[in-house]
Amino acid sequence: MSKQHVHVRINQGMSVSDEGELIEQFGCRCGAAWTKTYQVEDPEKD
Ligand SMILES: [Zn+2]
């Protein structure tokens, strides 16, 4: 099968790095994977 399918980014959970960044993990059934990192600013920090 050479047909290229459209990846579906299924949310596989979130984690927080040591530096406080939010890491969102996605994966497709074909095995492709992505991560998305958010810089989280602490709203209570002042
Ligand atoms: Zn895929």
Q: What do these coordinates show?
A:
- By secondary structure, the protein is mainly beta.
- The protein has one domain.
- It is 0% helix and 41% strand.
- The protein is built from no helices and 3 strands.
- The chain has a 3-stranded antiparallel beta sheet, with no helix packed on it.
- The protein is elongated.
Give a quick rundown of the structure:
The chain is mostly beta strands. The protein has no helices and three strands. The chain has one domain.
Please tell me how large the radius of gyration is. Answer: 15 Å
Indicate how many domains the architecture comprises: 1
Count of extended strands: 3
How far apart, in Å, are the first and last alpha carbons? 56 Å
Structural class: mainly beta
Summarize the amount of helix as a percent range. Answer: under 10%
Strand order in the sheet with the most strands: 1-2-3
Report the uncertain regions. Answer: none
Put simply, the count of helices is 0
Oligomeric state of shown chains: single chain
H/E element string? Answer: EEE
What is the general shape?
elongated
> What is the mean predicted local confidence, pLDDT?
89
Q: What is the makeup of the main sheet?
A: 3 strands, antiparallel
Q: Approximately how much beta-strand content do the residues carry?
A: 35-45%
What ligands does this structure carry?
zinc ion
